[in-house]
């Protein structure tokens, strides 16, 4: 995780990394977008009582805070690249604070995404118990995450120099923040703890959600089918019981009327049966459409996380084996920030309440 904050291979004598203009533009664009979008989510939460009344939205608030921190970290990264040593004091304090800030941002975002997925799993597996979820319980879970992050960053700053030789430091000659390059063994440990384990948890949790949703949907459709079938059988039995009496009674006085009445009754039975079948068919299509939409959304959550993080950790392994151009390291680091830009759309703006509030905010109609 520490390797994600900044690259360690700097060669410019002034302490300024030689990065292509396109990559620099991408850096500031992702940073500004992450800060702006997550500020919108934070403002929507704090200004809308209905949004605050839903406990799970507190998870989304903290996710926006951590993603906003990631955007700020990218902007600091961009300024540092452009200005180099001129903005850094003659000590390691700023490098240490900056490194710890970046680690806290990305680690909290990852943990909160896992926590949100776990919350959704509880919602679909035990909905009655889930209704008892309170804001206090959610706040305790979030507090535990931030305490863990604080301990993790503290251990990274004080223990990393002793263990994996990766420490936030300042090069006296170049005047830049550096991190000692991880060897291949430490790189594999880092990718396992920081990427593979969270990704595995997300896949397992969202897989269980998909299985549960599919099972619930199929059970609901089966009950609807049985209810429609039972209603059709009861209606058919009632019609068969009533019709002979009407036929016998009327046949004694009128010759061909029984056949006409029986024909009308048959038409009503066919029409009612057809309507029930059409209603059931439409219900099945709606349920399956809803289920497939939910499954695609859950797969999207996992895919976005994997696609944003995998290139960086692939580069981490490559850097421990071969030389990689510094601007490529920088690009892979910035690409991780893209996850902080996408998260507001995945976890907040898909909610109708957030979208309505966002519309009011952008039109400056906040009451």
Kindly state the percentage of residues in helix.
over 70%
Tell me the fraction of residues in β-strands, as a range.
under 5%
What does the overall shape look like? globular
User: Biggest β-sheet, characterized?
Assistant: 2 strands, antiparallel
What does this structure look like?
- By secondary structure, the chain is mostly helical.
- The protein has a two-stranded antiparallel sheet.
- A hairpin with a 6-residue loop joins strand 1 and strand 2.
- Helix 3 runs antiparallel to helix 9.
- The protein is globular and about 75 Å long.
- The N terminus is likely disordered.
Summarize the structure.
The protein is mostly helical. The protein is built from 10 helices and 2 strands. Strand 1 and strand 2 (177-179) form a beta hairpin.
Explain the layout of strands and helices.
Layout: H1 21-47, H2 49-52, H3 57-83, H4 93-125, H5 127-130, H6 135-163, E1 168-170, E2 177-179, H7 184-251, H8 257-319, H9 326-347, H10 352-362
Antiparallel strand pairs: 1-2
Could you list some keywords that capture this structure?
single chain; 367 residues; mainly alpha; two-stranded antiparallel ribbon
């Amino acid at each position: 995780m520490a390797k994600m904050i900044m690259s360690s291979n700097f060669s410019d004598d002034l302490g300024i990394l030689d990065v292509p203009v396109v990559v620099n533009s991408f850096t500031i664009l992702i940073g500004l977008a992450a800060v702006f979008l997550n500020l919108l989510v934070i403002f929507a939460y704090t200004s809308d009582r209905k949004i605050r009344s839903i406990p799970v939205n507190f998870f989304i608030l903290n996710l926006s805070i951590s993603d906003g921190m990631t955007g700020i970290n990218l902007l600091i990264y961009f300024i540092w690249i452009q200005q180099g040593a001129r903005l850094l004091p003659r000590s390691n304090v700023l490098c240490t604070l900056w490194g710890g800030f970046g680690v806290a941002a990305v680690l909290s975002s990852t943990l909160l995404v896992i926590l949100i997925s776990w919350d959704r799993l509880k919602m679909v597996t035990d909905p009655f118990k889930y209704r008892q979820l309170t804001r206090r319980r959610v706040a305790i879970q979030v507090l535990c995450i931030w305490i863990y992050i604080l301990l993790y960053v503290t251990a990274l700053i004080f223990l990393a120099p002793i263990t994996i030789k990766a420490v936030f430091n300042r090069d006296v000659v170049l005047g830049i923040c550096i991190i000692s390059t991880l060897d291949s063994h430490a790189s594999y440990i880092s990718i396992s703890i920081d990427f593979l384990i969270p990704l595995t948890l997300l896949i397992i949790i969202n897989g269980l959600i998909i299985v549960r949703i599919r099972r619930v949907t199929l059970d609901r459709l089966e009950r609807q089918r049985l209810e429609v079938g039972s209603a059709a059988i009861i209606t058919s039995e009632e019609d068969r019981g009533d019709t002979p009496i009407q036929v016998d009674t009327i046949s004694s006085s009128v010759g061909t009327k029984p056949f006409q009445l029986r024909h009308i009754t048959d038409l009503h039975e066919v029409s009612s049966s057809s309507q029930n079948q059409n209603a059931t068919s439409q219900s099945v299509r709606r349920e399956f459409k809803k289920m497939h939409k939910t499954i695609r959304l859950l797969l999207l959550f996992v895919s976005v996380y994997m696609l944003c993080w995998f290139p960086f950790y692939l580069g981490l392994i490559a850097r421990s084996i071969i030389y990689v151009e510094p601007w490529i390291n920088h690009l892979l680091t910035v690409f991780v920030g893209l996850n902080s830009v996408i998260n507001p759309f995945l976890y907040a703006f898909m909610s109708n309440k957030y979208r309505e509030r966002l519309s009011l905010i952008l039109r400056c109609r906040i009451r």
